[in-house]
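Supplementary Note 2. Why include the ligand at all?

Several targets in our set were suspected to adopt different conformations when bound, so apo predictions alone were not considered sufficient. For every target with a known small-molecule partner we therefore ran a joint prediction. The input for zinc ion is given below.
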Amino acid sequence: MSNYDFGPDERLILAKIDFGIPKRRCAKAAYGAVEEYLAALMYNGQISADYLIQERPRYVAYVQAADDKALEPTHLSPWGQKGSEMSLSAFGHRPKFVLLEPPLNSRGLSWRSAKTLFLHTHIFKSGSPVGSPELQGAVPVYHLPLSHQDRDYLVRWAREYRDHDSIWLGCGRLEVPAYREMADPRSKLSREGREHCRIIEKTTGIPTYYYLFRYHGRLKEKLRRCPLCGGAWRVPSPKGVTKFSQFAFRCKPCRLVSNMASSLGDEEDERLAAIGEPRPSMRRKQRG
Ligand SMILES: [Zn+2]
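The joint prediction is reproduced in token form.
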């Protein structure tokens, strides 16, 4: 199983947003309105980070909506409403949208029916970083009962995480520092991610886990302990599929899940395996 199999299953829907033809002497304002409107949708979790804009003969944008209701005006944040107002004055009307391929059962998953949530994204994802093992899919960020500012921070965090993953995958000079940010639960990126989990859990009342990336490991990878508390955290291999069986490790008190390393035993793995393991002082304590 690759590390990229763990992210929430996204069900993004391709949509076209039609802004129209700018009014006379409104070319600059029109461009600004389009940028503003799309950025506001993205940072509220209504569309993914990838979108395309065509400027002539009329302004249209192709976006990936989080679900079939995501573009409805009732879901706009105050920033999105401002973008809508700017569009009204630059184009003479508000943006209109059409779903290009409306799928069956495209309703976004509601966090209310989840028993647990987890936070995880990677370079090949562009939508919500919040998933639920029970629902087997991503929960659109705009559905979560967070403040608009917390949604904005969460979407920005997901973007930063993907940037780190991209640098790691590129194997350049920053490969190891980027890996450390994703694989060490005490790194800045992980601490921020865990703080997002805490806020999501506080507002939804649903236990929310942070997914800790793991690539370099040891031959006795099964014996790895929780890097935060040093406790046993192996998820027992189930006969059937259980809710958390996709994660090899879960520590309930630390709200951490992780996977088995996929690269084991060579010199580099041995050197980097300590990232994401308990600190040596903690290991001594357990033995003694
Ligand atoms: Zn722990």
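Residues 226, 228-229, 231, 251, 253-254, 256 surround zinc ion (CB under 6 Å). Helices lie at 27-43, 78-91, 148-169, 175-183, 188-204, 267-272, 280-287. Comparable summaries for the other entries are listed in the accompanying table.
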